[in-house]
Amino acid sequence: MKTIKKSLLALLLFVMPFGLAQAQSKVAHIEVQKLVSEMPEVIAAQKEIEKLQKTYEADFEASYKEFQTKMQNYAADAENQTELINQRRQTELETLRQNLEQFQQTAGQDIQKKQMDLMRPLYEKARNAIEKVAGVQGYEYVLDSSNGGSVIIAKGKDLMADVKKELGF
Predict the structure, then answer these.
(1) Pick from 44, 82, 86, 110: most CB atoms within 10 A?
(2) How many domains does the structure of the chain reveal?
(3) Distance from first CA to last CA of the chain, Å, rounded?
C-alpha cells in the first residue's frame, strides 16, 4: 500500500508540472492575409501599382506598334531593296524584338519590386499590431490561419477584431 501511494505521489509530481505548463500557454489565431487585404493603406498601394502597370503597358504598346509598322514597311519594300539592306533591316527588327522582350521582363520585375516595397511596411504594421494585442491579452502563440496556413482547426481566440481596432479600422 505504501509503495502504491509513493508511486502515485511520484507520478503526480511528475505529471503536474506538465499540466500547469500546458494550462498556462494561450494560443490565438488570425488570418494575416485577410487582415492586410482589409487595411485602408492597401487600396492606395494597389492604385499606385496599377498606375505603374498602366504606364508600362502604354510604353510597351507604343513600342510594339512601332515594331509592327517597321516590320510591315520592310516586308512591303523588301523586293525593291538589296540583299544587304534587307539583312540590316532583319537585324534591326530582331534587335527591336529582343528589346521588347527585355522591356517586358524589366517592367515585370519593377512592378514586383514596387509591390514588395509598398506591402512590406503594411505587413510589418500588421505584425506589430498583432504582437501588441497578443501581448496585452496574454497570448504566447498566435497562429496564421490564412488559407494555406498551417492551422488545421482554429477554435481558439480570433484576434482579427482586436487587431483591426488597434490599427484603427
Answers:
(1) 86
(2) 1
(3) 64
